[in-house]
From TrEMBL:
Gene3D superfamilies: NADP-dependent oxidoreductase domain. CDD domains: AKR_AKR11C1. It holds the Pfam family Aldo_ket_red. This is Aldo/keto reductase. Residues 16-313 form the NADP-dependent oxidoreductase domain. It comes from Paenibacillus psychroresistens.
């Protein structure tokens, strides 16, 4: 395992870390026993950072992390998120009373005294611009309830605004071969300011694994079924904003990235890690095999400058115009 510093904090986190939305819910069937085995496997391989949220399975993923990391609270860092348990458009969701309640509930489920990284969970730009939520987070940090705080954002515009806030230490952004917009401005700006980047949806909800064949269907409780067109939440959170059919079509054009990199999955993760502004990539998982497959990205070679340029041009010509949602 290799580690990178999370922005200008002292946290050294594994380059490949993991998100826990899938083991909480909304990604089809999953077994807790297998989730716990997969978490243990990740930690055995040197993974020391996990991302979750209070709404992943109604807090279930936080509870699973508490079980998996018991006794290792100082070694295993956890980032969680808040606000989507309420009305994200309502300023009352971001008052001190509300945020403190979200924080205490997460601490209880995680069975921890402090949250390593507490993140605003994709609040609207208008809410962020009001600034009050950052004042609340400053207070929680001063009390030791949270170690650092950051923001999970939907768009480059939101990310750039958050970089202006003095105590934001990390941005969580959708970033992958199908979602390259952050490269031009957001990533360099974050790097210059010493703000960490957590790359979420690195495999575009599975599109960049190459595993979805024609006729593939998702289970009813999988968000890739019920949110394909943004029916439940921002469409950018599903397939990085591409429609499933379009994503499959584009994925077929990317078979070449697996050459010399063992698989599309590992190549897609390697492409993200080739950007120095990225602190870690946080793919999801539902079983041990997926954990080990994703960790294989650490063993494959970096992309050449020529291949990076090829992928950038291909994105601009074939993908960018088809992305939906805020970006």
């Amino acid at each position: 395992m290799r580690y990178r510093t999370l922005g200008n904090t002292e946290l050294k986190i594994s380059e490949v870390s993991f998100g826990t939305w899938a083991i909480g819910g909304s990604w089809g069937s999953v077994e807790d026993s297998e989730s716990l085995r997969a978490l243990q496997t990740a930690m055995d391989q040197g993974v020391n950072f996990f991302d979750t949220a209070d709404v992943y399975g109604g807090g279930h993923s936080e509870e699973l992390l508490a079980k998996a990391t018991a006794g290792r609270e100082t070694d295993i860092h956890i980032a969680t998120k808040f606000c989507r348990g309420g009305d994200i458009q309502d300023p009352a969701t971001y008052t001190e009373k509300a945020v403190r309640a979200y924080c205490e509930a997460s601490l209880k489920r995680l069975k921890r005294d402090t949250i390593d990284l507490y993140q605003i969970h994709c609040a609207p730009l208008e809410i962020l611009q009001q600034g009050l939520v950052f004042e609340v987070l400053d207070k929680l940090q001063a009390e030791g309830k949270i170690r650092y705080y950051g923001v999970s954002v939907e768009s480059v515009e939101e990310g750039l605004f958050c970089l202006e806030q003095p105590n934001v230490r990390a941005l969580q952004v959708i970033f992958n071969i199908f979602r390259q917009k952050p490269v031009a401005e957001l990533l360099p700006a974050a790097y210059a300011k010493g703000v960490g980047i957590l790359a979420r949806l690195p495999l575009a909800s599975g599109l960049l694994t190459g595993k979805f064949k024609p006729g593939f269907t998702f289970e009813a409780d999988d968000h890739r079924n019920f949110n394909n067109n943004g029916e439940q939440f921002n469409v950018g959170e599903t397939f990085a904003g591409l429609g499933f059919a379009k994503g499959q079509e584009l994925g077929l054009q990317l078979d070449w990235i697996a050459e010399g990199k063992e698989s599309m999955t590992r190549a897609a993760l390697r492409w993200i890690l080739d950007h120095e502004a990225v602190s870690c990539v946080i793919p999801g998982f539902k079983n041990t095999a997926q954990v080990l497959d994703n960790l294989g990205a650490l063993q494959v070679p970096a992309f050449s400058a020529a291949d990076q340029a090829r992928l950038s041009a291909w994105y601009q010509e074939n993908v960018h115009a088809h992305i939906r949602g805020s970006y």
